[in-house]
Design goal:
The structure is a single chain. The chain has four helices and six strands; from the N terminus they run E-E-E-E-E-E-H-H-H-H. The chain is globular and about 45 Å long. Strand 4 and strand 5 (56-67) form a beta hairpin. It has a six-stranded antiparallel beta sheet with strand order 1-2-3-4-5-6. The protein is 34% helix and 32% strand. It is an alpha+beta fold and 155 residues long. The model has no long low-confidence stretch (mean pLDDT 80).
């Protein structure tokens, strides 16, 4: 993720975040908003996304205590709708990217925890955002250039 608004998961709350691009040189940051529809403390969170007309997705992350300090991480996603089918190649690539990055993140957390016995701002590695700032700068520039058009049309 490039940016996440929420620090806590609360049933019924809206999640807001921004995805990194699938490749660092792609000039986009993908915003997302979702509603938390299921929450089991330290076990599972499910959210639903309605992105554009004709796009609906449901995502679940789960954790299963295997004992002896081991945990199984799971991720499940399903998307549907006319807009999803129209852009299916992109969305499947995006979902695969998110899955792979989520698993890589879980492995990083495991290594940090095994080494430090903690997961906090001191022990977690900082992300290098330098290559990914270009898309954000482009979005900011476009917003400034087209702000009058956007304002006039109440977009």
């Amino acid at each position: 993720m490039f940016w996440v608004k929420n620090r806590d998961l609360v049933l019924g709350d809206e999640l807001m975040w921004m995805f990194e691009p699938i490749q660092w040189w792609y000039a986009y940051k993908l915003p997302a908003r979702a509603r938390i529809v299921e929450l089991e403390f330290q076990r599972k969170v499910t959210w639903e996304v309605t992105f554009i007309p004709g796009f609906y997705a449901r995502h679940t992350y789960s954790l299963e205590d295997l004992g002896n300090g081991r945990t199984r991480f799971g991720s499940w996603e399903q998307a549907e709708g006319a807009s999803f089918r129209l852009l299916q190649a992109f969305w499947l690539t995006h979902f695969t990217f998110v899955k792979d990055q989520s698993l890589a993140g879980a492995r990083t957390l495991e290594r940090v925890y095994q080494r430090t016995d903690a997961l906090d701002l001191v022990t977690l590695p900082l992300k290098d955002y330098a290559p990914s700032l270009l898309p954000l700068v482009l979005v900011a520039a476009a917003t400034m250039i087209f702000k009058d058009v956007l304002h006039d049309h109440h977009l």
